[in-house]
Amino acid sequence: MALHAKPIDHLIEALSKLPGIGKKTASRLAFYILRSNLSEAQELARAILDVKEKIHLCSTCFNLTDEDPCWICRDGRRTQEVLCVVEGPNDLIAIEHTGTYNGRYHVLHGTISPLEGIGPEVLKIKELMERLQRERIKEVILATNPTVEGGATTLYITELVKPLGIKVTRIAYGVPMGGEIEYSDGMTLSKALEGRREI
User: Fold this and answer.
1) Are 50 and 64 in contact, with CB atoms under 8 Å apart?
2) Domain that holds residue 144
3) Rounded mean pLDDT of 42-56?
4) Do 154 and 91 sit in the same domain of this protein?
5) Which residue, 17, 68, 142, 153, could crosslink 111 as a Cys pair with Cβ 3.0–4.6 Å?
């Protein structure tokens, strides 16, 4: 026996397919949408369709964009010689939010993961190498996550880039601001020690 009218059940089912959204949250969202006025619901539907229809990959860095090239690649004030390689668009946004990096990016769209059947050919590594041949890059910053897959991807790219005579660096990992050493795991502490700088 259905508890709701079919359109409500359909909306709850559709919302519960989103990552991190369980049935209860999906139900709350569905009833919020139901209580909102028609123009708000239409605006939400238009926003969803807009991202599906208008967003594509930048032909240079492979970031998500509605213009090609994206605004970062078009910005002539950014340092042209430094390229930060990230796993995904969210990582790029996180680095941009720091306000400390003024170079350009290359988005891989994942990491090498043999267990999941993801090899280097699935990622934007070939395009990265073509970029390095075409552009005057002096340093490649590898900003992959501190996971086994991120480490494997970093190692793979390093072996490809080093022979080109381009400096390869990796972002340091360590104890987060506000974190306590006492509660940090051994891997985090060892990375923090390895990434230490002279003061």
Assistant:
1) no
2) 64-173+180-194
3) 97
4) yes
5) 153
